[in-house]
Amino acid sequence: DADADLRPRPPVVTIMGHVDHGKTSLxxxxxxxxxVRGEAGGITQHIGAYQVTLKDKSKITFLxxxxxxxxxxxxxxxxxxxxIVVLVVAADDGLMPQTIExxxxxxxxxxxxxxxINKIDKHDANAQRVRERLLEHDVQVEAMGGxxxxxxxSALKKTGLDELIEKIQLQAELMELKANPDRDAEGSVIExxxxxxxxxxxxxxxxxxxxxxxxxxxxxxxxGKVRALVDDKxxxxxxxxxxxxxxxxGISGTPSAGDQLQVVENESRAREVAEYRQGV
Length: 280
Ligand code: GTP
Ligand code: NA
Ligand code: MG
Description:
By secondary structure, this protein is α+β, with helices and mostly antiparallel strands. The protein is 24% helix and 31% strand. It has helices at residues 23-31, 70-78, 97-109, 127-136, 161-175, 267-278, and strands at 7-8, 12-17, 49-53, 59-63, 84-90, 113-118, 149-152, 178-179, 186-195, 199-208, 211-212, 216-219, 222-230, 236-237, 239-240, 245-251, 260-263. The strands form four sheets. A six-stranded mixed sheet has the order 3-4-2-5-6-7, sandwiched between helices. Strands 9-10-16-13-12-17 form a six-stranded antiparallel barrel. The protein has a two-stranded antiparallel sheet with strand order 1-8. Strand 6 (113-118), helix 4 and strand 7 form a beta-alpha-beta unit. The longest helix has 15 residues, at 161-175. The protein is elongated and about 60 Å long. Magnesium ion (MG) binds next to helix 1. Residues 23-24, 64, 66 line the site of magnesium ion (MG).
């Protein structure tokens, strides 16, 4: 895309960290800051990918990962779509194997990292100890003379959330994230399932272009025509912009996490590409 076609897009933030350090709880707390959520009539389902609209109307997309498969999860579900990693470390537990794996993987992927020191409400929380242990793994937070941003939070008590959001926004501003919304959409499958009532459903993060109802597409070795787009609040949309996670209905079969979705000109072209990919 030519530079002139590029428009600012929201950052895609992947939450990583050890099992039970509070990734999902933190995301739930962050969703509480969403000014749009109230209008939507509650949360319909947990899709592990959602977009928060802040008071200033800016947006942040969050991807959750389960601690026990942090490495593979980020690689398969968010590898190239992640802009910023938020590393969640429980202040009582400190650095654990999946924390270290997440640090190493984030560094290898060259992604900027913000450390959220969670569970700061606990009586045995020790944030300083976390900062010292991070240093042993070459993560130098500001208080230790480095440049990595860290913030003390409690997902339970909902403290530190505004500061975390500010740090994410600052990091995102530095990155000048852009995409061209005026082209055929491309996206990445975050997760997919076969739903009893609705058939194959894929949660797709739109990376370029705008995905619209009626668009014909190829995704992995499957093809389809967008029958419906549903956001993380359960609302039916007509279109999804860059950085937006959205459930896509109307797929021939169930794709896999990490598969790429591409809008194509017509259904025969879609079938042709899908069949080629299936090796038919
Ligand atoms: P996995 O997805 O299994 O890796 O876990 P997770 O990192 O998503 O952790 P989850 O949000 O499921 O929280 C694990 C436990 O920690 C739950 O019992 C939470 O209630 C608790 N917890 C999360 N955040 C906090 C916090 O800030 N303070 C306290 N005291 N407990 C918390
Ligand atoms: Na858990
Ligand atoms: Mg979780």
